[in-house]
Amino acid sequence: MTNNAEEQLIAWLINYPKKIHDAISIIEPHMFKDSKLQMLYTEMQNFAFEGRNYDLISLTTTLKAKGLQIDSFVVSLTISSSLAMPEIETYALLVRENYIRRNFKSITELASTKHTSEDIFEAVDSTITQLEKITEPPSAMVERSKEVVIQEGLQLIIDASKDRSSLVGCPTGLEILDRHTRGFRKAHLIIVAARPGMGKTNFVIGGLKAAIEVGLQPAFFSLEMPAPEIYGRLLCVDTLFTSNDVRMGVNDAGKLSAIEMYFQKMKDWPLIIKDQNMTIEEIESYCIGQVSRGVQIDVIYIDYLQLMDSRHKYGSMEEKVGEMAKRCKKLAKRLHVPVILLSQLSRQVEARTNKRPMLSDLRQSGQIEEAADMALLLYRPSYYDPEDEGYDEVDVAKYRGGSTEVLVAKMDVLHNCWRNADRTEYLQPQQRIEVSQEDLPF
After folding, report:
1. How far, in Å, are 87, 89, 90, 216, 312 from residue 94 at the CA level?
2. Local confidence band at 428 (pLDDT 50, 70, 90 cut-offs)
3. What are the strands, taking DSSP E only, across 188-338?
4. CB-based contacts of 183: which residues, under 8 Å, 6+ apart?
5. Do residues 288 and 219 make contact, with C-beta atoms less than 8 angstroms apart?
6. Which residues pair with 343 in a beta bridge?
7. Which of 4, 193, 402, 440 is deepest in the core (most CB within 10 A)?
8. 3-class DSSP state for residue 149?
9. What is residue 274's three-state secondary structure?
10. Does position 427 have pLDDT exceeding 50, yes or no?
11. In the prediction, which pLDDT does 425 show?
């Protein structure tokens, strides 16, 4: 086994090409000190970004076509590591750490020479900027050109002008919210916050179904609910089936057969569900890796913020969730998709006479609110007063792209989603228990 972390990492990546996506979110080519290893990693990254697999032959052939003859060097690397189990993330972090150490030393040494009174403040600013740059996470994506970005900005206005009632973003799953926002926008971080029992997960379920129905592929990272239960909830959205059917089962053979057929249909849905306890780094790596391989991800849901963890240690819960929210915003910008992040609200809500939530009720609220492009607060009066038969609320408490407003809606418990307050066709499913082949919801 080689003792050099850079060589060992590249050797593993050659022998285990699928692991390249574990490294992409941690390091970039310029972080390698050895120029040959820089070139090798660059080609591996290029293969990944193009959605192609590589092997020893394809790597050396590509490098040869560029006039780089390093066949024997590459072969020696693969032989030296063939018996070792890959520790990609550990060694990628070592490479990154060594890169930061090298640059930290050179930057601070240069700064120490700028000690005259007329340039000391400029030197401090320059040093801080350079230090921040070397500690930034890698972009892990091909940078879009200025022309492409400008054209996208123009196209948003053109699309919005064609039909002022149509969506220009991902559907939210709630018609009245779609009308107010025109959909969740690309590169936006949307915080959906509430106390337990308010319907956060059902808000996600409705959003997933709405995205699928317009041909988008959502990715749902569920840190709380297992995937089988999620599919059970999806069964009930816009169908004759209810949450009672899922929870208690059915005693009708025809209805059970219909449920089985619907679950078969779900296998073809463009939907990614990950219910493992993933860290923020693993979520980033997974999403970036999938997109790099050409897998379409149009919107990301994460349930929920306070359950997210990280490889890094933080001094307080406030610092931790603030950093998680910021990284989710960076992920939205990096992948150019909306990220919907669920969050708990503070228990202080329960101590108030008026239980209606406010932005200040966000647990560790300052940094979360700062990172969000939109913040939605869910509120169900009937949760606190079962005799209250009024409407529920979706409070658009923050919206960088428009106005704040409290939207009147209804959380449909039986069908696991939020609906417009004027939609009543799903509120009494007991009137439609009989299911015939003609009435199947697909």
Report:
1. 11, 9, 6, 38, 14
2. very low
3. 189-194, 218-222, 272-274, 299-303
4. 167, 168, 169, 170, 171, 172
5. no
6. 193
7. 193
8. helix
9. strand
10. no
11. 40
Secondary structure letter of residue 119 according to DSSP: T
Q: What residue has token string 């890698």?
A: 138
Q: Which of 436, 429, 338, 409 is nearest to 175 (CA)?
A: 409
**pLDDT per position as a tens digit, 83-128:** 556 788 888 989 999 999 988 888 887 777 765 555 666 777 777 7
Say which amino acid occupies 146: K
* Measured distance CA(232)–CA(208) in Å, rounded: 13
- Residue 173 is predicted with a pLDDT of 92
Q: Rounded to whole angstroms, what are the CA distances from 68 to 72, 145, 289?
A: 12, 28, 27
Residue 234: both structure tokens together? 């999806």
What distances in angstroms separate CA 345 from CA 178, 248, 363, one per listed residue? 24, 31, 5
Tokens 């979110």 sit on residue = 25
Cis peptide before 304 (omega within 30 of 0): yes
Give the Cα separation of 246 and 234 in Å (integer): 10
Distance CA 314, CA 326 (A): 14
Containing H/E element for 103? helix 88-112
Whether the Cβ atoms of residue 181 and residue 396 lie closer than 8 Å to each other: yes
Long-range contacts formed by 30-37: CB under 8 A, 24+ apart: 30/99, 31/95, 31/96, 31/99, 32/6, 32/95, 32/99, 33/6, 33/98, 33/99, 33/102, 34/6, 34/7, 36/70, 36/73, 37/6, 37/7, 37/10
Report the distance separating Cα 437 and Cα 319, nearest Å.
55
Residues contacting 140, CB < 8 A, separation 6+ = 24, 25, 28, 284, 288, 292, 334
On whether the CB atoms of residues 207 and 219 are closer than 8 A, the answer is: no
SS (H, E, C) 164-206: CCCCCCECCCCHHHHHHHCCECCCCEEEEEECCCCCHHHHHHH
Q: To the nearest 10°, report the CA torsion of 196, 226, 273, 331.
A: 50
Could you give the CA distance from residue 420 to residue 376 in angstroms, rounded to a whole number?
Answer: 16
Better pLDDT: 52 or 2: 52
For residue 434, the model assigns a pLDDT of 33
Distance of CA 431 to the CA centre of its chain: 39
Query: Is the Cβ–Cβ distance between 321 and 367 less than 8 Å?
Result: yes
Other beta carbons within 10 angstroms of residue 216's beta carbon come to 18
DSSP assignment of 221-235, as one string?
EESSS-HHHHHHHHH
Helices and strands, counts by H and E, the chain: 18, 9
Please name each of the domains of the chain with its CATH number.
5-135 (1.10.860.10), 152-439 (3.40.50.300)
